[in-house]
Amino acid sequence: MGMQLVGASALVLVVLTHVCEALHLFPYMNWGLEHSAGHYLDLASAILGFALFPTGYLLQALRDDRQ
Q1: First to last CA, the chain
Q2: Angle at 30 between CA 36 and CA 15, to 5 degrees
Q3: Is 32 helix (H, G, I), strand (E, B) or coil?
Q4: Helical H runs in the chain?
Q5: In which band, very low, low, confident or very high, does the pLDDT at 1 lie, cut at 50, 70 and 90?
Q6: Contact 6, 52 (CB under 8 A)
Q7: pLDDT tens-digit map of 6-30
Q8: How far apart (Å, rounded) are the C-alpha atoms in residues 65 and 59?
Q9: How is the chain split into domains, by residue range?
Q10: Which pairs count as long-range contacts for 55-59, CB under 8 Å and 24+ apart, including other chains?
Q11: Each residue of 35-51: pLDDT tens digit?
Q12: What is the pTM of this model?
């Protein structure tokens, strides 16, 4: 469940970065530009979210199946 929680939190962070980009919050992050802090925050969060959430779900399903 821990991996799922971290993965889900990362996906929420992806949504929040897109909201911040749309509302032009934190302009120093240079949202939408390649090689900017905002771009790498969004990319890293998406990778973590899409890797950890399904992995955590799979591990939980396998563990529950054994019991």
Answers
A1: 16
A2: 90
A3: coil
A4: 2-22, 37-66
A5: confident
A6: yes
A7: 999 999 999 999 999 899 888 888 8
A8: 10
A9: 2-66
A10: 55/3, 55/7, 56/1, 56/2, 56/3, 56/4, 56/5, 56/6, 56/7, 57/4, 59/3
A11: 888 889 899 999 999 99
A12: 0.83
